[in-house]
Amino acid sequence: MNLLLKFQKYLEDNNGPVSVRGYLSDVRIFITWFEKAKGYELTEERLKKEPHILNKAVIDSFVKKLHAEKKALNTINRHISSLRVFGHFLVDREIAPVNPAQKVEIKRLPLPAPRGLSDDERYKLENMFRKPWERLTNKTERVRELILAPKLIVRDRAIFIMLLYTGLRVSELTALDVQDIEIKKRSGKALVRMGKGGQPREVGLPRQVREALQEWLDLRQELSIKDSALFVDLKMKHTRLSPRTIQNMLSEAAERSGVAVTPHVLRHTYAYMLRRNGVQPEVRARLMGHSIEMAMRYGSPKEEELNKAVDSLDSETSF
Questions:
Q1: pLDDT tens digits, one per residue of 82-106
Q2: Rounded distance between C-alpha atoms, residue 75 and residue 193, angstroms
Q3: With 90 as the cut, is the pLDDT of residue 13 above it?
Q4: How far from chain centre, in Å, is Cα 89?
Q5: Using an 8 Å Cβ cutoff, are 166 and 205 in contact?
Q6: How far is 79 from 83, CA to CA, in rounded Å?
Q7: DSSP-based three-state secondary structure for 229
Q8: For residue range 28-49, what is the model confidence (pLDDT) as tens digits?
Q9: What's the confidence (pLDDT) of residue 296?
Q10: Rounded CA gap, 164 and 160, in Å?
């Protein structure tokens, strides 16, 4: 089997599809460069016989080539990280004795302060999602759009409030099914089946989310929507919404309100509100679905700490 195909299978056992595509793309670029520079194919058989052909010096040369091409430092660091994963694969499968990229230096940039919404921006957006928008594309669709507008705002408000008050990634939100949601009078939760790195987690739902979601779920029932997806398209055949559709909706909200907002900005705002309410870093890491390694570095918060963190958002004003 081709070395890249084996690497792909190795990745798919431990990573989500987006990560798999990213790692494969970076390693494919390296292998193409390697084979052109060396004049021979990089195969499992050759590596087992001549492990010295792939070493730190070779990868350093590849990194110098990226610098010569004036690639961004973040891009170069991503390539090095991908090659480290590739090296782990080679060692794990006993194709190479050591990871050739393990000691290649990754130069860190200072992290910018996360962009989150101010209270005024948050209130402005929440208020905007209370009223239907006039989403008129052309004259032939005018009547249909006017009829749909009150329904669309119920769905889109639930999406906006859920992104803001749960910190879900947009891909996690669009993957939710109705059965993944549990709403009770004083509590609620959403089951994220495939978080970053393929890790599942439960996310608590504060009051604002439960109320917005319940309104949407009631409308779903009224419209007899059969699709299992939590959020569906109301214009066509009730198919699952894509991350792109939600990003476009928020772009329109940004244009109408004058408030720059994206799913990632809402995620940062959630983290900021948790921190402002005194939620400890290790609890924030768990709630936001950080890597297991990061969560373990922070410690392992107990269930009551997670519940208390979610409940703290009940005091936030929601128009």
A1: 999 999 999 999 999 999 999 898 8
A2: 29
A3: no
A4: 24
A5: yes
A6: 6
A7: strand
A8: 999 999 999 999 999 999 999 9
A9: 39
A10: 6
Q: Looking at the predicted structure, is the pLDDT value of residue 16 above 80?
A: yes
Distance from C-alpha of 54 to C-alpha of 67, rounded to nearest angstrom? 20
Question: With contact defined as beta carbons under 8 Å apart, do 88 and 99 qualify?
Answer: yes
Closest CA to 273 of 232, 227, 314: 314
Between CA 62 and CA 231 the distance in angstroms is 45
* Beta strands in 119-244, from DSSP E residues, in sequence order: 181-183, 188-192, 201-204
Domains in the chain (CATH in brackets) are 3-92 (1.10.150), 119-315 (1.10.443.10)
Cβ contacts of 184 within 8 Å, gap of 6 or more: none
Q: What does the pLDDT read at residue 141?
A: 55
Other Cβ atoms closer than 10 A to 89: 21
**Strand ranges in 165-292 using DSSP code E only, listed in sequence order:** 181-183, 188-192, 201-204
3-state secondary structure of 2: coil
- Tell me how far apart the alpha carbons of residues 276 and 267 are, in angstroms, rounded to a whole number: 14
Average the pLDDT over 114-118 and give the result: 78
Is the pLDDT assigned to residue 299 strictly greater than 50?
Answer: no
- Are 159 and 231 a contacting pair, CB within 8 Å? yes
Q: How far apart are CA 102 and CA 209, in angstroms?
A: 44
Output the CA torsion sign for 303, 306, 312, 318: negative
Amino acid at 170: V
Which amino acid makes up residue 37? A
